[in-house]
Amino acid sequence: MTLLVTGGAGFIGSNFVLDWLARHDEPIVNLDRLTYAGNLENLAALRDDARHVFVQGDIGDRALLDSLLAEHQPRAIVNFAAESHVDRSIHGPEDFIQTNVVGTFRLLEATRSYWAALAPNAREAFRFLHVSTDEVYGTLAPDAAPFTEQHATEPNSPYSASKAASDHLVRAWHHTYGLPVITTNCSNNYGPYHFPEKLIPLVIVNALAGRALPVYGDGMQVRDWLYVKDHCSAIRRVLEAGRLGEVYNVGGWNEKPNIEIVRTICGLLDELRPRADGGRYDELITYVTDRPGHDRRYAIDARKIERDLGWRPAESFETGIRKTVAWYLDNADWVTRVQDGSYREWVGKHYGASA
Ligand code: NAD
Ligand code: DAU
Q: What global pTM score does this model have?
C-alpha cells in the first residue's frame, strides 16, 4: 500500500506528509516540481525515513507519471500540486494554466491508464483525491449564506479560474470514464511552513523585522480560516470514507475581516515578543492599493463533511493562530532561509542523489 502525493513539499502538502507518516506506516511517494513554493526543508525530519520517497518532477510530465505509477503501484493519489498565490496569478497567469489545468489533465490521464489496468479489487479500492479551494465559488455578499457544495462555480481571479477548470476536469473524468475521484474545496489555511507571501506569515515576519504590514484596500475583505492540520485531518477522513464522485467543502466556521487578523497577530506578538523600542506592532499597519478583482468575502458551509463523515476541526482560530505565531517565533532560521533563498539549496545539500 502506497500513497502518491503531488505537491508534498509545499505548505499544505508538507504538513500532510508529516502528519500522515506520524500516524501510518503506509509509505508516501512525493512528486513535487520544487517551484519557489516547494521547500524540502519542511520534510527534513523524514530525510532518513524509507517511508518517504521524494521525486522532483512535474505533474505535467506524462512519461514520468507513467513510470512512477508502474513502479510504486499507489492505492491512491492526493493532488496538492498547484500554483497557489492569487497575486502571482494576476501578474503572470501562464504557470497557473500550465500546472493547474494542463498538469491536472495529464495527471488524470496517466491515472486513468494506470487505474484501468489494475486488478478488479485494486481498481475498486483506488482513489484520486483532488485538493481544491473555496475560491472557485467566487465572492459572497455580506449577508449571503456560506458556500455549499451546490454553489455555482464563479471564479474571479486567474488562480481561481484555473482551479475551477481543474475541478471540472476531475468531475468529468469521473462521469465519463468512471475514475474514482473525490474533490475537497477548502477555505484559507494557516499554520507552520506557510510561505511568507501569504497574509498571515507575511504579517508575522514583517512585524518581527519592523517592516510595514500591508493591508489591501480597506482591510474589510473576509476570509474563513482553518488551521492547516485540520485541513490535513479532513483530507485523511475523505480519503478513508468519502463517497466517489462527491465534493466536500472543508472549513472551520472562522470568518474574519483581514484587518482583524492583522490586529490579532500584532497583539500576540506584543505579548510574546514585545518590540525592543517599546512600540506596538499595529503601528506598522499600512493600507496599500487593493488587489485587482479582489473577492470581498469567502465563507464555507462545512455541514456536509461534518454530517456525512463526522469530521470537525480540532483548533479554534484563537488556539490555531497562537500556535502559528509561536511556530514562526521558534523557527526564525526557516524564515531566514526562505527569505535569503538558501532553502532552494536544500535538495542538493540534504537529499543528494535521492532527490
Ligand atoms: P503551495 O504553493 O505552498 O505548494 C504547492 C506545491 O506544489 C509546491 O511544493 C510546488 O513546488 C508544487 N508544484 C507546483 N507546480 C507543480 C507541478 N507542475 N508539478 C509538481 N509539483 C508542483 O500551495 P498550498 O498552499 O500548499 O496549496 C496546496 C493545494 O491546496 C493547492 O492545490 C491549493 O489550490 C489548495 N488549497 C490551498 C489553500 C490555502 O489556503 N493555502 C486552501 C484551499 C486549497
Ligand atoms: O480561500 C482559499 C485560498 O486562500 C487558497 O485557495 C489560496 O491558494 C491561498 O493563497 C488563499 O488565497 P487568498 O488570496 O485568500 O490568500 P492571501 O493570503 O494571499 O490573502 C488573504 C487576504 O489578505 C486577501 O483578502 C488579500 C489580503 N492581503 C494579502 C496579502 C498577501 C492583504 O491585505 N495584504 C497582503 O499583503
A: 0.98
